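Appendix B. One record, verbatim.
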Amino acid sequence: MNSIFVFIILIYTIIYIADIDQCNDLSQKLHFFTSVQIFTIYYLTSAMLHLVFGSIATYLFFYHVKYKIRQQHNDNISFQTVIITTIANHIIGLFCIMYFKYAFNPILSFNPFLLITQLLSAYAFVDGYHYVIHRFFHTIFMYKYIHKYHHYLKNPYALGSIFCHPVEHMLFNMCIVFLPIILFKMHFVTGLVIVLIATYRNIVGHSGLTLLQTTYNHHYHHIFTNYNYGIGISDTIFGTKLKIDAY
């Protein structure tokens, strides 16, 4: 519910603060941008937010125990390795974006109704994609050779949210953001909101802090690996929702 609340707040913030004429003017300017330039803006925005706010959340995780979810297991990986892998994945992701040749043609006319419908469509798509691809990574072969690295973090923290195999980073972390933007030909502003929401959820979900239910849900997944694959109602639909009132 906390994530849904933030989702709604972001929508109304854009609707009431953004100047629609300015958004449309921005669209005309971005019309001359290439797909590579647009998606580089998206990716760098996400990476910078992850490194800045992820660092703050990680500091709270390690140095303010009162905000930390009770630790049950020791991590199987060092903090230094997590940071090096995270930075490497950001570099690999940016390199992939720079060679992105898809001819992206976003919708140029911005209005609040378009924003809401595109965000709702993206939420439905992302919930389904997140669940399916996550369960796929938990099949025997994919888990053994790719996804197990992410689960070396038994007590996840924000900077480790993209600590994973590069293949997983591209198919999971990147595709879950960029695929809905491409499929629904999202306006630049809507795409930016998607990037912000996805980055926020990734940081919070792996923060290891007691502030939001979203954190508990994914924290349980790192402990009880066969539950909580999705980010919305998909786990409830498929019977993989694990909800523990107190931990």
